[in-house]
């Protein structure tokens, strides 16, 4: 009786597989340690309600936030990457692509769609960081180019949502040329007088900032997003200097003149459509 | 409310009136008649003072701490349609120069203007309305964007001058202002300029070339402030009043010289004493001028503007 708490069996070790764990995805913990239920997070535009941390999301979530009733038509959904250089690092590029497709359920790092946003048509090109770090290769370049063509042909404003580590190394110079290709297309869009909104989300780095992410009629962002050409680690290693506080955050970029404004994710739809109405001299939509 | 030296009789009467009202509320004495008398006298005094303003007094009024600033006008004119846009895409976002899109009567305008602060902290934040090169470059970027989408431009001028700092020179203050002046002469959309406070020199003209240049009644516009003029030409700060007269910097003077197109009347007691009516007057004048300019083709608009500036200057022979 006195030893009711004594272990009779020696050396109990539950193997990892047998351990009872909370199913993944029920809770989200923000970097400051605030915990929020997944459902609640989704309802709050994927922003942690306590500390306003804007959780990284992908095209699925942005489409849901920006298109009315989450209704849209996806464009060029079937485009997939080739492996023109037969590239191989620790893994074959072709295998990497297959794995990424399997893991994410996506075809590549960008999706394009057209649909109604506050009652008016909008073309949105949105990158997915989950697919090889949102890297930009031939497919990304081509899908953006076709999205712009669609905008020009149908006279619909174009929204680019960048979320990328930069150009895709596995396509080498071909991916570098996507900077030129997308920029040329944006020049055509400008020539056609169609508004281009660039939304830089966490993270927007490398080749994307050196092309379409910085070329909007307005460049906007969400609070606390990382935006820069060379990432903070590279800058630190290269210069050997400590980086100033808040270096390359969206607030830093606003202060240095590269963003028109920062919008809370909850107000994105309102602000983007307000800009479109103002610049096109249309009546301001109220929702 | 703060009072300028020549406004002190108004202050005294306003205080008397307040006291009179309080006595009426707190005792049984009937003060209606006395109050009415004071009110009448207040109105007369106001009229008297504001009818005979000297040039220097108008300069003082243009800097009145309670005077509405650019953002006050924009917010009053556009309500919640105003969307502020930031940055020059080069160096910084200049807090002394603000800009953005907004609606007046369902028509979009690109608003640009120097912004002053309303207390010590915000005055510093706004750099006292003195823009750096990046402020002028931000203004130009927004004007170019307006031109691209055929949106007319409205500029509000209220600056003691462009910022005279070391970094400002390093980044090309002169070049920035020059570029703006040149580009504004050939911008293909209507430009309406309103001088709402101080219009000091190149810092003002850097956003001041327009098809219609309007000037509020109690503002000034010249190549230099009366104080600086006094210190340079009289070699003392003491002669600012004479300098103000000599520079012919008031709205009626400027209208006479055809440097501005129209004077916008302020309520008796100045813009600061009745902001709502000031906003209303500015709003309807802007829209009136826009409706006239809208009728011109971009080519005629630019030609007319070019001619206007080409004809400025007075000379013999």
Automatic annotation (TrEMBL), chain A:
EC number(s) per entry: 2.1.3.15
Gene Ontology terms describing biological process: fatty acid biosynthetic process; malonyl-CoA biosynthetic process
Main function: Component of the acetyl coenzyme A carboxylase (ACC) complex. Biotin carboxylase (BC) catalyzes the carboxylation of biotin on its carrier protein (BCCP) and then the CO(2) group is transferred by the transcarboxylase to acetyl-CoA to form malonyl-CoA.
Species of the source: Maribacter vaceletii
Pathway listed: Lipid metabolism; malonyl-CoA biosynthesis; malonyl-CoA from acetyl-CoA: step 1/1
InterPro entries for the chain: AcCoA_carboxyl_beta, Acetyl_CoA_COase_Trfase_b_su, ClpP/crotonase-like_dom_sf, COA_CT_N
UniProt subcellular location: Cytoplasm
Gene name per UniProt: accD
Protein name per UniProt: Acetyl-coenzyme A carboxylase carboxyl transferase subunit beta
Reaction equations catalysed: N(6)-carboxybiotinyl-L-lysyl-[protein] + acetyl-CoA = N(6)-biotinyl-L-lysyl-[protein] + malonyl-CoA
Automatic annotation (TrEMBL), chain B:
PROSITE patterns registered for this protein in UniProt: COA_CT_CTER
InterPro entries: Acetyl_CoA_COase_a_su, ClpP/crotonase-like_dom_sf, COA_CT_C
Pathway: Lipid metabolism; malonyl-CoA biosynthesis; malonyl-CoA from acetyl-CoA: step 1/1
GO cellular component, one term: acetyl-CoA carboxylase complex
A Pfam family that the UniProt record links to this protein: ACCA
Reactions mediated catalytically: N(6)-carboxybiotinyl-L-lysyl-[protein] + acetyl-CoA = N(6)-biotinyl-L-lysyl-[protein] + malonyl-CoA
Domain of life: Bacteria
One Gene Ontology term of the molecular function aspect: acetyl-CoA carboxylase activity
Primary location: cytoplasm
UniProt entry keywords in alphabetical sequence: ATP-binding, Cytoplasm, Fatty acid biosynthesis, Fatty acid metabolism, Lipid biosynthesis, Lipid metabolism, Nucleotide-binding, Transferase
CoA carboxyltransferase C-terminal domain span: 37-292
GO annotation terms (biological process): fatty acid biosynthetic process; malonyl-CoA biosynthetic process
Subcellular compartments: Cytoplasm
Broad EC category: transferase
Protein function: Component of the acetyl coenzyme A carboxylase (ACC) complex. First, biotin carboxylase catalyzes the carboxylation of biotin on its carrier protein (BCCP) and then the CO(2) group is transferred by the carboxyltransferase to acetyl-CoA to form malonyl-CoA.
Quaternary structure (record): Acetyl-CoA carboxylase is a heterohexamer composed of biotin carboxyl carrier protein (AccB), biotin carboxylase (AccC) and two subunits each of ACCase subunit alpha (AccA) and ACCase subunit beta (AccD).
NCBIfam families: accA (TIGR00513), AccA_sub (NF041504), PRK05724.1 (NF004344)
Protein name: Acetyl-coenzyme A carboxylase carboxyl transferase subunit alpha
Gene: accA
């Amino acid at each position: 009786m006195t030893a009711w708490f004594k272990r009779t069996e020696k050396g109990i070790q539950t193997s990892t597989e047998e351990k009872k764990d909370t199913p993944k995805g029920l809770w989200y913990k923000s970097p400051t340690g605030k915990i929020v239920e997944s459902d609640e997070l989704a309802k709050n535009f994927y922003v942690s309600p306590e500390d306003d941390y804007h959780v990284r999301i992908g095209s699925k979530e942005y489409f849901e936030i920006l298109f009315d009733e989450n209704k849209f038509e996806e464009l060029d959904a079937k485009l997939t990457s080739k492996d023109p250089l037969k590239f191989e690092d620790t893994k074959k590029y072709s295998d990497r692509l297959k794995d990424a497709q399997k893991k994410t359920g996506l075809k590549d790092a960008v999706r394009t769609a057209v649909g109604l946003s506050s009652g008016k048509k909008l073309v949105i090109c949105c990158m997915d960081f989950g697919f090889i770090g949102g890297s930009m290769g031939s497919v990304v370049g081509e899908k953006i180019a076709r999205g712009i063509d669609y905008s020009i042909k149908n006279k619909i404003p174009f929204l680019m949502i960048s979320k990328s580590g930069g150009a895709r190394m596995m396509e080498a110079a071909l991916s570098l040329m996507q900077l030129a290709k997308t920029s040329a297309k944006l020049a055509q869009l400008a020539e056609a007088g169609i508004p281009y909104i660039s939304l830089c989300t966490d993270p927007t780095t490398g080749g994307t900032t050196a092309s379409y992410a910085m070329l909007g009629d307005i460049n906007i962002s969400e609070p606390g997003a990382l935006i820069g050409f060379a990432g903070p680690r590279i800058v630190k290693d290269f210069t050997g200097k400590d980086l100033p506080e808040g270096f390359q955050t969206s607030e830093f970029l606003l202060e240095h003149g590269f963003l028109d404004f920062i919008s809370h994710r909850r107000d994105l739809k309102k602000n983007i459509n307000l800009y479109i109405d103002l610049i096109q001299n249309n009546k301001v939509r109220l929702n | 409310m703060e009072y300028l030296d020549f406004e002190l009789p108004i202050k005294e009467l306003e205080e008397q009136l307040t006291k009179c009202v309080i006595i009426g509320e707190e005792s049984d004495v009937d003060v209606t008649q006395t109050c009415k008398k004071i009110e009448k006298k207040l109105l007369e005094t106001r009229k008297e003072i504001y009818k005979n303003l000297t040039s220097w007094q108008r300069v003082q009024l243009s800097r009145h701490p309670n005077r509405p600033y650019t953002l006050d006008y924009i917010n009053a004119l556009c309500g919640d349609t105003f969307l502020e846009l930031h940055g020059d895409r080069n160096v910084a976002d200049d807090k002394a120069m603000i800009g953005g899109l907004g609606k007046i009567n369902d028509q979009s305008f690109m608003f640009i203007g120097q912004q002053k602060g309303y207390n010590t902290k915000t005055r510093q934040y706004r750099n006292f309305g003195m823009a750096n090169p990046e402020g002028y470059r931000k203004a130009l970027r927004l004007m170019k964007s307006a031109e691209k989408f055929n949106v007319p431009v409205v500029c509000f001028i209220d600056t003691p001058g462009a910022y005279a700092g070391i970094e400002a020179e390093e980044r090309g203050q002169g070049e920035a202002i020059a570029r703006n002046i040149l580009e504004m002469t050939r911008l293909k959309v209507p430009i309406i300029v309103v001088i709402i406070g101080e219009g000091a020199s190149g810092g003002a003209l850097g956003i001041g070339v327009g098809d219609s240049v309007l000037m509020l009644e109690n503002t000034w516009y010249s190549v230099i402030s009366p104080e600086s003029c006094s210190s340079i030409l009289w070699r003392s700060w003491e002669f600012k009043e004479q300098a103000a007269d000599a520079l012919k910097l008031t709205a009626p003077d400027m209208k006479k010289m055809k440097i501005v197109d129209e004077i916008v009347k302020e309520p008796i007691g100045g813009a600061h004493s009745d902001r709502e009516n000031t906003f209303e007057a500015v709003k309807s004048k802007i829209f009136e001028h826009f409706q006239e300019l809208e009728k011109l083709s971009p080519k005629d608009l630019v030609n007319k503007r070019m001619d206007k500036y080409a004809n400025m200057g007075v000379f013999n022979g």
